[in-house]
Specification:
2 domains; three-stranded antiparallel sheet; Transferase(Phosphotransferase), domain 1; five-stranded antiparallel sheet; alpha+beta; about 20% strand; 6 helices
């Protein structure tokens, strides 16, 4: 749970993120910088129930906490100037770092990076989508499978100056149908580590206890059951999954 002041103290708006598809604001609570997404500012979607994106963002944080990997910054629900919404602690990313990149195919680094796919840019030059081969991104990739993230764009990964990586923008998660769309396909088919399997076990155990109780106020019973089923399937397979279904495997735009 957030500190009481983060829930009860005044949320003051300081700016707006105009590139976001839903109403997204910068704000401050007792000197802490935050992102605020009011439920009233959510645009209707054809495949997700209306007015639920903020709840899914908070649910993603709770699952991140159950994994124990600090994938998602501290996120909670509270009232604000435009009504109830999601609030998340602001993260000061290092823009000199790129955890995910689109580079000329001839310039793909030989080590430290994973290849996702090749294509051509608007000038017909061959380009390759790559991402870091790092512990933080591996964990994020596992997290995305479990929460069924339908929108893991490159810019939804914040590269921190100390080497940590945070995932943000988790409104399109937890659908009961398969929706996984992500730029983090570099470990497709690889065996999962003991650490990753232990993380799955922690989430599964949490669903039978406090995590399950907390998610009940944020997701439908069907969505929670599907979450548990994804944990079970991935735990049994012990490998990073391949894309499946008729939907695109990556979001668009990529960034």
């Amino acid at each position: 749970m957030p500190a009481p002041g983060l829930v009860t103290s005044e949320l003051t708006l300081t700016g707006r993120i105009t590139t976001a598809s839903n109403a997204t604001f910068l704000g401050s609570i007792d000197g802490a910088l935050v992102v605020y997404k009011p439920i009233a500012g959510e645009h209707p979607l054809w495949d997700f129930p209306g007015g639920t994106l903020a709840h899914r963002e908070v649910a993603a944080y709770l699952v991140s906490q159950a994994f124990g990997w600090n994938v998602v910054p501290h996120t909670w629900l509270r009232d604000g100037p435009m009504g109830r919404g999601m609030v998340q602690l602001w993260q000061e990313q290092d823009f000199a770092q790129n955890a995910v990149d689109l580079v000329a195919t001839d310039d793909v680094p030989e080590t430290g990076w994973k290849h996702v796919f090749e294509g051509r840019d608007e000038n017909e030059r061959r380009v390759t989508l790559i991402h870091e081969d790092s512990l933080s991104l591996r964990r994020m990739a596992v997290f995305d499978v479990i929460v069924n993230n339908a929108d893991r764009k490159g810019d939804h990964i914040l590269a921190m100056g100390d080497g940590r990586r945070h995932g943000v923008d988790h409104g399109l998660t937890f659908h009961s149908e398969h929706k996984l769309r992500t730029v983090l396909w570099g470990w497709l088919g690889d065996e999962m580590t003991a650490d990753e399997l232990d993380g799955l076990d922690r989430v599964s155990a949490g669903l039978r206890g406090e995590l399950g109780r907390n998610l009940a106020g944020l997701l439908s019973a069907e969505e929670i059951a599907s979450l548990g089923a994804r944990c079970t399937r991935l735990r049994f397979a012990e490998r990073f999954p391949a894309p499946s279904g008729e939907m695109p495997a990556v979001p668009w735009p990529l960034f």
